[in-house]
Write a structure and sequence with these properties.
The chain is mostly beta strands. It has one domain. Strands 3-2-9-8 form a four-stranded antiparallel sheet, with no helix packed on it. Strand 8 and strand 9 form a beta hairpin. The N terminus is likely disordered.
């Protein structure tokens, strides 16, 4: 016997392309040249099940977890997470010395969303440097509803 049911295939794909750059803005800075890291993060909206509080996600260090060399004063991370309706959001954060900048972006289907975060004059040990994180969040269109037949 074959049963017909509608499977909600409203999932969509997300790609986050990012560049993290730590650079001197004064001659006496702790670094004497730009230090860059880049990468791409890919997920589907149904990669995350229902977690505590209604959603779950994944955290990615941008660069290195202990901070960019030589002094480890600059780092960043991205978190991609989904809610119970499989809608995705991205949280971005950078840290330089004692300063921090963060931003949360809702990432619905069918979007191309550029982003940029900056910190100038990191304070204390990072004085004379700046940090920037920029990139693009791209989401596909939803796959839609499809009739699915299951055998019993």
């Amino acid at each position: 016997m074959t049963d017909f049911s509608f499977a909600n295939l409203s999932r969509y794909f997300i790609e986050v392309e990012w560049v993290l750059t730590w650079f001197p803005i004064r001659d006496e800075a702790v670094i004497n040249r730009p230090i860059m890291r880049n990468g791409t993060i890919n997920h589907r909206s149904d990669d995350f099940g229902p977690g505590i509080g209604g959603g779950a996600g994944a955290v990615y260090w941008l660069g290195e977890a202990e901070g960019l060399p030589p002094a480890g004063l600059a780092n960043g991370f991205a978190e991609i997470y989904g809610d119970l309706d499989h809608r995705l959001s991205v949280s971005l954060e950078i840290k330089l010395g004692g300063m921090r900048s963060s931003h949360r972006v809702a990432a619905p289907p069918g979007q191309r969303l550029p982003f940029m975060l900056n910190i100038a004059q990191g304070g204390q040990d990072a004085d004379g440097t700046a940090l920037t994180l920029f990139g693009t969040i791209v989401t596909s269109e939803q796959l839609g509803l499809r009739l699915v037949a299951t055998e019993r």
